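Please, why this fold?
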Amino acid sequence: MTSPGYTYEAARNCKQFADFRETSLRTPGQLLSVYAQLSKLRLTMLVMLSATSGVAMSPLPTTLPILLSTALGTALCSASANTFNQIQEVPYDAQMARTRQRPLVRRAISPLHATVFGVVTGIAGPALLWTMASPVTAALGAANIGLYAGVYTWLKRKSVLNTWVGAVVGGIPPLMGWTACGGKLFPTAENPIHFFLPSFLSDGSLGSSMANNPLGAMALFVLLYSWQFPHFNSLSHLTRASYAQAGYKMLSVLSPKKNTEVSLRHTVLLLPLCSLLFPLSGLTTWWFALTSFVPNLVWTRAAFAFWRVGGEKQARLTFQHSLWYLPVILALMMLHKQGMDWDLFGKPSVKSEMSWGSEITVACSYASRRLRELRTSFWNRIHSSSNPGSTEDVGLS
């Protein structure tokens, strides 16, 4: 267990850290490689894809520049948050096998240089979102930097509540995509909450005055928020020894049984979310309630076994299911998006005026497949490591 007084300077003198010598960045390629590591590139790409899913699922008209600027602005915000996270955790990263190669630990970049990079990306991201998307989107991006690099990073060594804060961080990017298109987060007199009933109970039409439904934003947030608990809790169970070594207050370390209960609870919550909330919000048709039932049932069964037995085999299966679950659900949401009609050749036709909506939906279908590939690569790295160490590059971390 690391003492509270363990600092960056102390880390420089530890056995593992002493093996590395300070290096200079001689080429632009080396510098870009270090920046990518500071940004946790794979994690940043996943966050960016989550934000673009909010754009893709929005029923409001948008443009390609808004989609691209939202993706880039979100990526810059994520890069800033991850950089400040690593700056604060150098002493603990130096102790764990999977994080000893991080650029600050091996002194490939100075703390001052990393801080400048974090500040520049932290300013550029919200500025781009403010200019090209909306002030609300920029505020969400800036808030996520503070939540992740400030509250979440600090809580990791203080309280198990860090996981809940991390889940909020993961749920915000789809809201950034939603607000970038002009969507509202809260009901107003002009944009109240609407419920879209099955066609045999109503005409099922999506009028222009009903498209901006705050219930859709809530559904997207809850999906990403709840998904992270079975994903991260099962993974943290597999790497709980490393968290204990670094002194992190994780539920898998302090209360393994409670860790499995929380995982099961949120997996079960995803069933009514997909079967009721998404169709009721008007984001998807009611066919989504049927097609999403199978992947939800499969994951719930694995989470139930994880709760009942609590072994590493069950935790591994729950985590593996999380790798394909989110891309599959996002793809089904796009397939059954309200207002989209797919012909026999798989080409979308738009029933209502959606501008770039169909193009974005098709693009994000590819993005969801890429999301699955990236998450699978995360698992392969963990599975191939005999001593996993920290999980900073995966899930909530």
Summary: The longest strand covers residues 340-342. The CA atoms of residues 260 and 309 lie 9 Å apart. Confidence is low (pLDDT under 50) at residues 1-8, 13-21, 350-363, 385-394.
